[in-house]
Specification:
The protein is an alpha/beta fold. It has two domains: 2-163, Rossmann fold, CATH 3.40.50.1970; 167-200 and 213-360, Dehydroquinate synthase-like - alpha domain (Dehydroquinate synthase-like, alpha domain). The protein is built from 14 helices and 13 strands. Strands 4-3-5-6 form a four-stranded parallel beta sheet. A hairpin with a 5-residue loop joins β1 and β2. The protein is globular and about 55 Å long.
Length: 362
């Protein structure tokens, strides 16, 4: 077991059999509740139940399309039925949706009960579980209802990655690539040297990735300044994700962040912030890991309403987070509409090239 030093919360990395029971016991919880989705309840929770003494399991539907207040209401009702009180502890076992929504329901229940994350996907281990952002989508807009509150602890057990389909690993890598681009030369160098998914040294990747995310959040926990760097790829990416949900063709978060990073890197290059050599390096690395390149990319006008509703805008202006070089990123950059459109259409044009294999359509 390894402990990453962080002022946010204790972050453990290692097998859950190597100390999780003691960590839970030390919390002296009146009741231990596990929140999981249909997949993790079957594939991951049994491993936990072998170690922990709990039979209180709340199962939610799997997928971003179920990350909304109606799902929260069902969880809260089950908590009441199970006599959950303020001395209870919630364990969120799953990916980004479970970490976001499970943490949100715990943070709101009886004005806040303790919770911890046991992430089971690459995306959650690398990003969603760390930083205290909790919430749900509302009327199609990503994470519109939520708050910031850190978990009591996070436990990262890489063995859960064995339960993932390849597409989920690819999806999660998007956030790791993002962290490398905005804040870590070492992580970028490591990713640049890896030939493909099978060759990823996960222990080393997490060792470099976790301090990037945690370090940025520690300096700006309330998301007023530097933390906005983490939004790189997410302004366009979230708009695409919301659009896909609106037409009942949900796309995983990470698979929308790949095109988001490409478009926003292009914006940064067009506006003179990012050098061409760095832009080309970003495109090359994304090409290598984004194997699921079959993306139905809608016309910009269909994505625009979701872009204009971005929760990060201020005084009617969207502030983009744009890389200035590998390892550095600026934020709150207002970009002319035409540059955004042209950069988006640049990605659409790549649908005609072999490396991207994108399909343009509804």
């Amino acid at each position: 077991m390894k402990i990453f030093p962080s002022s946010l919360c204790d972050i453990y990395e290692g097998s859950i059999s190597d100390g999780l029971k003691k960590v839970i016991t030390d919390l002296n919880a009146s009741k231990l509740i596990i929140i999981a989705d249909e997949n993790t309840s079957a594939l991951c929770v049994p491993k936990l139940q072998e170690i922990l003494n709990t039979d209180c399991l709340i199962i939610t539907r799997s997928g971003e399309q179920y990350k909304h207040l109606d799902s929260c209401k069902a969880i809260w009702s089950k908590m009441i039925e199970e006599n959950v009180d303020r001395d209870s502890v919630v364990l969120n076992v799953g990916g980004g949706v479970i970490c976001d929504m499970g943490g949100f329901t715990a943070a709101c229940f009886q004005r806040g009960i303790r919770f911890a994350h046991i992430p089971t996907t690459v995306l959650a281990m690398a990003d969603a579980a760390i930083g205290g952002k909790l919430g749900v989508d509302h009327e199609g807009f990503k994470n519109y209802i939520g708050l910031i509150r850190n978990p009591t602890f996070i436990w990262i057990d890489k063995s859960f990655l064995e339960t993932l389909p390849r597409t989920e690993i690819i999806s999660g890598l998007a956030e790791i690539i993002k962290h490398a681009i905005i804040g870590s030369h070492d992580l970028w160098h490591l990713l640049s040297e890896v030939k493909g998914i099978e060759d990823i040294p996960w222990e080393k990747v997490f060792e470099l990735n976790i301090p990037v995310k945690a370090g940025i959040v520690e300096k700006d926990p309330e998301d007023r300044g530097q933390r906005k760097m983490l939004n790189f790829g997410h302004t366009i990416g979230h708009a695409l994700e919301s659009y896909c949900l609106s037409v009942n063709k949900p796309m995983s978060h990470g698979l929308c962040i790949y095109p988001g990073m490409l478009v926003e890197s292009k914006i940064s290059t067009v506006t003179g912030r990012l050098k061409k050599v760095d832009f080309e390096a970003i495109v090359e690395v994304i090409h290598r890991f984004w194997e699921t390149k079959e993306l139905s990319l809608p016309d910009f006008e269909k994505v625009k309403p979701w872009l204009l509703g971005d929760k990060k805008k201020s005084r009617g202006k969207i502030g983009y987070s744009l890389p200035e070089c590998i390892g550095s990123c600026s934020w709150d950059i207002v970009v002319e509409d035409q540059i955004v459109i042209e950069s988006y259409e640049w990605l659409q044009a790549q649908a005609k090239s072999v490396p991207f294999r994108l399909s343009v359509g509804d």
